[in-house]
Amino acid sequence: MISIKSPREIKLMKEAGHINYLAHQYIEKFIKPGVTTLELDRLINSFVTNHGGYCSCYHHDGFPGHTCISVNDEVVHGIPSKRKLRSGDIVKLDFTVRKDGYESDMTRTYLVGEVSEDVKNFVLRTEEALKVGLSVVKPGAKIGDIGYAISNYARQFGYGVVEELVGHGIGTDMHEDPEVPNFGEKGKGHTLKEGMTLAIEPMINMGSKDVCMLEDDWTIVTDDESYSAHFEHTIVVTKDGYEILTGE
Ligand code: MF3
Ligand code: CO
Ligand code: CO
After folding, report:
1. Is the CB of 92 under 6 A from ligand 1?
2. Is the pTM for the entire model greater than 0.85?
3. pLDDT tens-digit profile of 222-247?
4. Domain range spanning residue 45?
5. What secondary structure letter does DSSP report for 182?
6. Distance from the CA of 157 to the CA of which of 46, 127, 183, 198 falls in 20 to 30 A?
């Protein structure tokens, strides 16, 4: 069932989403060669807690961290650890913030130190893929329109669009209906309606689209070890388009 949120619920999701946005702004200055992903996890958790939110990835289905931190060929659900970031790495920070019973979900891919031009362009284009996906959101549009726009944009560069992992509805639960794939056909799937809240999140690989799970049963990596990038916003469908809830 796809729920329609009331103005009151949307306001609460925006409060949660704003803390999520602020936490991303805050953490950027700490992302340098030498920092461990566990240090970043702790800093984000303290910031979110101090701002009245809760890092709801913590123990979600048993996840052993407050945030998902995935480096280079790790696509999603990386577990914070003693791994030190190195110059040339890219790191995805993906976390949910819960406040007053409502969730928000936001991801950004960050560059560590000096990153090659190819990789920089790849990360910028993945961010652009999210914007392209958002640009088709309005009442009457279909879920398939979003995935079509994202995959059509990303594939022109020869990148792989991950198919096993998808965006989703969001609200009182982190994951609600509908699924929002990053590929699809125009005009197919559920119809978007004012008041639907969605997490849209392209996961794009520099190489093949194929992914697999590591032995820790959480971390998803690319099959060919190519780099993967990920951007995510929580949005609400409005009367004539959408509004980002994980924003300023
Ligand atoms: N934030 C992820 C998403 O975009 C989900 C995290 S799963 C968890 O859907 F177990 F780590 F919480
Ligand atoms: Co997320
Ligand atoms: Co999500």
Report:
1. no
2. yes
3. 999 999 999 999 999 999 999 999 99
4. 7-244
5. S
6. 198
Q: What is the CATH number of the domain that holds 78?
A: 3.90.230.10
**Does the beta carbon of 201 sit less than 6 angstroms from any atom of ligand 1?**
yes
Q: Would 69 be classed as within a structural domain?
A: yes
- The string of pLDDT tens digits covering residues 49-100 is 999 999 999 999 999 999 999 999 999 999 999 999 999 999 999 999 999 9
In a domain, 54, yes or no: yes
Best residue among 67, 174, 234, 235 to mutate for probing ligand 1's pocket (most ligand atoms within 8 Å of CB) is 174
- End-to-end CA distance of the chain, in Å? 30
Residue 52's nearest CA partner among 6, 10, 18 is 18
Residue 1 lies in a domain: no
Q: Is 39 within a domain?
A: yes
SS3 67: coil
Number of domains in the chain: 1
Please indicate whether residue 57, judged by its CB atom, sits closer than 6 Å to ligand 1. yes
Residue with tokens 């609200």: 171
